[in-house]
């Protein structure tokens, strides 16, 4: 399995850079062809910038420079739209350019529909597409998940690609926007933390005040309860003064009844 670092750091490209230093014309073309066909070379900007490669633009081998530029920055559709002016691709080169196209799409889409992949890669059936994706995952070119039910590819990771100079301003603008958004979110987080601390402090003080009031209430309620016990249970064993009075009245009535039947 190819290691991601080898694919993105250009480790395996160095041998072709060394060869390009001393190769001109047709020999330089052979170096380009070998680099494009190499199974673990997926970044090409250093090779493209070599003086002998740059000189191909003013030679009969300009098409090979253009082809290398497509592999460096472009996509499979870029090749197809200029196919008549470019060298033919070997099966291995076609596979690599299709894989680089998936990487390019993943820079803007984290969920890529099968329909878009089939169109951009010009693959005729889903089985062939899924085989290409599985091989790309196995080579660590991308990491993701095939969703066969919903017919899309979920991207979790993709290797980095070379960036053309004209795209740097756009990338810097995007990063600047991201930085401003991050600063705004950070300020909002700090504000929420301050608000949370304030609310927590208010709740703590309210609880302390409530606990004090409860304790004061307990101190005032206790003597009243003792007086109630005295009034309720201390008079003849009755629960209240009302029941004690009622009992006294009943006793008095019974006493009068007895006097009515008393013999003289």
Question: What is the topology?
Answer:
Blueprint: H1 4-8, H2 14-21, H3 26-37, H4 45-48, H5 51-54, H6 62-73, H7 76-81, H8 91-106, E1 111-113, H9 114-121, H10 126-138, E2 142-147, E3 152-158, H11 168-233, H12 241-260
Antiparallel strand pairs: 1-3, 2-3
Family: Belongs to the CSN7/EIF3M family. CSN7 subfamily.
GO cellular component, one term: COP9 signalosome
Domain PCI: 1-160
Describe the structure.
The chain has 264 residues and is mainly alpha-helical. It has a three-stranded antiparallel sheet. Helix content is 66%, strand content 6%. The radius of gyration is 45 Å and the shape is elongated. The chain has two domains: 4-162, no CATH class; 167-233. It has helices at residues 4-8, 14-21, 26-37, 45-48, 51-54, 62-73, 76-81, 91-106, 114-121, 126-138, 168-233, 241-260, and strands at 111-113, 142-147, 152-158.
Short structural summary:
With 264 residues, the chain is mainly alpha-helical. It is 66% helix and 6% strand.
Count of folded domains: 2
- The overall strand count is 3
List segments where confidence is low: pLDDT < 50 over at least 5 consecutive residues: 234-239, 260-264
Number of contiguous helices: 12
The end-to-end span amounts to: 131 Å
**In sequence order, what are the helices and strands, one letter per element?**
HHHHHHHHEHHEEHH
Q: Would you tell me the overall average pLDDT? A: 84
Rg, Å, rounded: 45 Å
Largest sheet: 3 strands, antiparallel
Strand residue content: 5-15%
Helix content: 55-70%
Structural class: mainly alpha
User: Per the principal axes of the C-alpha atoms, what is the gross shape?
Assistant: elongated
Strand order of the largest sheet: 1-3-2
Pfam family, one: PCI
Region (Disordered): 244-264
Keywords: Proteasome, Signalosome
Family: Belongs to the CSN7/EIF3M family. CSN7 subfamily.
């Amino acid at each position: 399995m190819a290691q991601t670092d080898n694919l993105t750091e250009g480790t395996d490209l160095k041998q072709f850079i060394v060869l390009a230093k001393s190769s001109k014309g047709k020999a330089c073309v052979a170096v380009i062809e070998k680099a494009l066909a190499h199974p673990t070379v997926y970044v090409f900007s250093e090779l493209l910038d070599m003086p002998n490669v740059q000189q191909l633009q003013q030679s009969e081998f300009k098409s090979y420079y253009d082809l290398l530029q497509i592999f460096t920055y472009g996509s499979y559709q870029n090749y197809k739209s200029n196919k008549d002016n470019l060298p033919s691709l070997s099966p291995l080169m076609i596979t690599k350019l299709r894989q680089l196209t998936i990487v390019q799409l993943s820079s803007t889409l984290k969920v890529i529909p099968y329909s878009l992949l089939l169109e951009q890669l010009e693959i005729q059936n889903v089985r062939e597409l899924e085989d290409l994706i599985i091989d790309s995952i196995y080579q660590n070119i991308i990491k993701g998940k095939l969703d066969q039910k919903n017919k899309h590819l979920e991207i979790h990771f993709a290797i980095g690609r070379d960036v053309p100079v004209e795209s740097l301003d756009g990338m810097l603008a995007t990063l600047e926007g991201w930085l401003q958004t991050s600063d705004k979110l950070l300020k909002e987080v700090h504000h929420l933390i301050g608000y949370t601390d304030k609310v927590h402090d208010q709740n703590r003080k309210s609880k302390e005040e409530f606990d004090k009031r409860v304790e004061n209430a307990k101190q005032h309620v206790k003597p009243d309860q003792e007086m109630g016990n005295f009034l309720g249970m201390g008079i003849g064993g009755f629960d209240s003064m009302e029941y004690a009075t009622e009992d006294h009245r009943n006793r008095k009535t019974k006493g009068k009844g007895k006097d009515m039947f008393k013999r003289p």
